[in-house]
Specification:
Structural class: mainly alpha
Order of helices and strands: HHHHHH
Number of helices: 6
Number of domains: 1
Radius of gyration: 18 Å
Helix content: 55-70%
Strand content: under 5%
Distance between the termini: 29 Å
Number of strands: 0
Largest sheet: none
C-alpha cells in the first residue's frame, strides 16, 4: 500500500517546500551583497535582495504559524522524530529572529547585531536540518514516502472541509 499523508499536512508542508528554499536563497544573496565576512559569492546578482527576502518572510510568517499549530496538534506524533522536529525549530528561530531584525542594519553595515547573528545561525540550521529531514525521509520510506507529500489524492474524510473537525477531534481527545 502506498503511503498517504494527510491533506492539511501536504498543503502546509508543500507551501514551506516552495517558500523556505526561496527565502534561504534570497538570504544567501543578502549575505553575499551586504555581509560576506565568511566568504561571498561573486556571482550574486544585483537587486534589492533585502526587500525580496523580507517579502518572502511576510509570506512564510502566517504559513509557518499554521504549520507549527498543525505540527503541535495533529502532527505531534511525527515530532518525536528529531529529523522532523529540527526543521520546524530552525524555521521558528529564523522567523522569530527575522521579525526582530531591522532591515536597515545590513544596509548601514551593522553586521554585529546579536539578532542578525542569531538569524545567520537559523539560516545555517535550516540548511542542515532540511537536508537531514530529506535524507531520513528517503532512508525511512524511499521515494514512495517522499512522493506521498506531492500526491493530490484525497481520502474520504480528509477534504478541506474536514480540517476543522480534525482539529476539534484532536482537542476533545485530550491532546
Amino acid at each position: 500500500m502506498r503511503p498517504y499523508q494527510p491533506s492539511l499536512l501536504r498543503l502546509l508542508h508543500g507551501s514551506m517546500l516552495l517558500l523556505v528554499p526561496a527565502a534561504w536563497l534570497s538570504g544567501l544573496m543578502v549575505y553575499c551583497r551586504h555581509d560576506g565576512r565568511w566568504g561571498a559569492l561573486g556571482w550574486a546578482p544585483a537587486g534589492d535582495w533585502i526587500d525580496i527576502h523580507g517579502t518572502l518572510a511576510v509570506l512564510i510568517w502566517p504559513l509557518a504559524l499554521l504549520f507549527g499549530v498543525y505540527a503541535l496538534s495533529l502532527g505531534r506524533a511525527r515530532l518525536r522524530r528529531a529529523a522532523n522536529a529540527a526543521p520546524l525549530l530552525a524555521l521558528a528561530l529564523a522567523v522569530g529572529s527575522g521579525k526582530l531584525m531591522d532591515e536597515n542594519w545590513l544596509r548601514d553595515g551593522q553586521l554585529h547585531q546579536p539578532v542578525y547573528s542569531l538569524h545567520l545561525l537559523a539560516w545555517l540550521m535550516i540548511a542542515g536540518s532540511v537536508l537531514w529531514h530529506a535524507i531520513v525521509v528517503l532512508r525511512r520510506g524511499g521515494t514512495a514516502l517522499a512522493a506521498s507529500m506531492l500526491r493530490p489524492e484525497l481520502r474520504t474524510g480528509d477534504q478541506p472541509q474536514h480540517w476543522p473537525g480534525q482539529l476539534i477531534g484532536w482537542w476533545r481527545r485530550g491532546r
